[in-house]
Amino acid sequence: MSVKMRPFLLLLLLALPLCPGCFSSKTKAPEDKAITVQIEQSFKHRWIEKRSAELIGQGKSPEEALSQSVREFRERYEFTSAAQE
User: Fold this and answer.
1) Is 71 within a domain?
2) How far is CA 47 from CA 29, 36, 77, in A?
3) Does any domain span residue 2?
4) pTM of full prediction above 0.85
5) In total, how many domains does the chain have?
6) pLDDT tens, position by position, 55-75
7) 72 Cβ contact partners less than 8 Å away, ≥ 6 residues apart
8) In a domain? residue 60
9) Does a structural domain hold residue 67?
10) How far is CA 62 from CA 7, 52, 69, in A?
11) What pLDDT, on the 0 to 100 scale, is given for residue 33?
12) Boundaries of domain holding 77
């Protein structure tokens, strides 16, 4: 490494903690959580609707199809807050 680059790299390393973004330890804003919940709810609704239609097409009654699709969603996506409801 050249001698001229050392001061530049030192300055860069010293300035790095001042940069916002990935190095920040800020927590998520409440609005972010609300958006996440809305997206998960929308995904759950669309997934269950689609899976229920598939099951009805296979000959299940609408009640059975809905029950099975809700159960399958909870099993597949148990890590989401939408699956806990």
Assistant:
1) yes
2) 27, 16, 11
3) no
4) no
5) 1
6) 999 999 999 999 999 999 999
7) 51
8) yes
9) yes
10) 71, 7, 10
11) 86
12) 28-84
